[in-house]
Amino acid sequence: MPNLADDRRADIPPSVPSSSENLARQEAIKQIERRRRFKVSAAVSGLGMIILVAIWAMTEYHNAGGWPVNGFSQSSGIHDVWNFWIVYPVGAWVFLTAAFGWGVHRRRSISESEIKREMERQSGPSR
After folding, report:
1. Is the pLDDT of residue 9 over 50?
2. Confidence class for position 112, pLDDT limits 50, 70, 90
3. 7, part of any domain
4. Domains contained in the chain, number
5. What is the pTM of this model?
6. Is residue 77 part of a domain?
7. Alpha carbon separation from 115 to 5, 112, 118, 119, 120 (Å, rounded)
């Protein structure tokens, strides 16, 4: 079975990368996978939000007896007034998707200096 993470041609013998190159390659592959997962997650949840908004619009149209010509309110059942509860799940979805995207696109590799600093911090003051 071919290795999907390796896009080199099969007839070209692979050169043996150094351990740091191999580590960098693995990190790059992980980052590409994270970005792909984010795109799929955002698309699927966006489709879910569109369906939710459509259901909300149909039920509010039915409950209010028409379009919201008199605006929006917190109460249901008022003629020509729609309940605006939909802003809460949509706002939460936007916030969570933005946070997920920030984590995916702003993630950076851990440097050797950060590792050494943390090791020194954990070992405590030398006596």
Report:
1. no
2. confident
3. no
4. 1
5. 0.61
6. yes
7. 28, 5, 5, 6, 9
